[in-house]
Structure formats: structure tokens, C-alpha cells
Amino acid sequence: MVCGLVAASRLLELRQSRRNLAAHPATDESRLSRRLFPLIVAVHTTVICGTLLFGHRGPRAFWLLALLAVQPLRWWVLKTLGNRWNARGAVPRTMQVATDGPYAFVRHPNYSVIAVELAALPLAFGLGRLAIAAGAANALLLAIRVREEEALLFRLPGYKEHFATRPRFLPFLF
After folding, report:
1. Is 32 within 8 Å of 148 (Cβ atoms)?
2. In the chain, fewer beta carbons within 10 Å around the N or the C end?
3. CA distance 159 to 152
4. Domain presence at residue 59
């Protein structure tokens, strides 16, 4: 059931992402980021399907609570960005920079949520190796994607001024 809910959520987000991209025809996406997107989808799909197929241990409450705990942050991100949000890391050229909501604290709060989800879902069902592999793959893909995405974001008026001193993923870390 948990895997089904996570999968349904990802599918709804992909649908909304397509709608949002269609609403912003003048959108930039780096070639490299475009190539990474199927790999990112593959990581998410592997975690959901792997957990569904191999996670036969009873759920561990701590990790289910961690998975549940980050959902309000995800919704806050989506609400804050509205039709500017997309799953591809594409940046509308005329986008107004979000400096409120979770973006008052960090540059990429949604990527923090994803990191927790990719660990918490398999860990909730005793799949530590899957969580480690997914975390490593996600970190590698995000290291590339964030660099590409920020190159586009720093071109937007106000982005550098607001985010130059903000951490990428975790607030109050340093």
C-alpha cells in the first residue's frame, strides 16, 4: 500500500510537471539535465518497485514516520512554486524567483525531501542496501543536475542576491 501511494504521488507529480512545462513555453533545460532525467526516474522507479518486490519485512515505524514527515515540506515546495515547478529541473526564462516558503531557508528543499524519501521507503521495509544504492545514485545525479540547474537559475534577476548565502539543501547547517 505504501509503495502504491508513493508511486501514485510520483505519477501525479509527473503529470503536473508536464502541465507546468506546457504553461511556460520559454523554458531552458540543459542538455545534460535532459539526459539525466530518465536516470532520475529510473532511480525512483527502482526504489518503489524494489521495495514492493523485496521488502517483505514488517514496516519499521521510524522510517514510515520519516517518509510521512517530509510530505508537508514537499507540499509546501509545490504550493510555493505553483506552476513554476517541474520535475525536470527546467527553468522558465521569465520565472520570478521564489524567495518565500521553504526557499527563504534553502535553495533546493525538494531535493532534500527526495533524499529522505529514497532512503526512508526501502529502510521502512528492511532494504538497507537498496537505500544506500539509491542514495548514492541520487547524490551523483543531483551533483550534476544541481550544478546545471543553478547555472540557469543564477541568470534570473534576484536569484543570486537571495540565494548566494543560502545553503543548497539543509537550513541552519553552518
Report:
1. yes
2. C
3. 10
4. yes
Distance CA 155, CA 46 (A): 34
Looking at the domain assignment, is residue 125 inside a domain? yes
Q: What is the DSSP letter of 91?
A: E
Residue 63's domain comprises 2-14+28-86+97-163
4: which 3 cell numbers? Answer: 502504491
The predicted pLDDT at position 149 comes to 85
In whole angstroms, give the CA distance from residue 81 to residue 38.
23
| Alpha helices by DSSP H, 24-127 | 31-54, 61-69, 71-81, 109-124
Structure letter (DSSP) for residue 142: H
Residue 173 included in any domain:
no
pLDDT score recorded for residue 169: 62
CA dist 23 → 16, 73, 144 (Å): 11, 24, 26
Question: How confident is the model at residue 50, as a pLDDT?
Answer: 97
Q: Which residues of the chain have pLDDT under 50?
A: none
Which amino acid is present at 147? R
User: Does residue 91 fall inside a structural domain?
Assistant: no
Q: What share of the chain is helix, strand, coil (3-state, %, to 5)?
A: 70, 0, 30
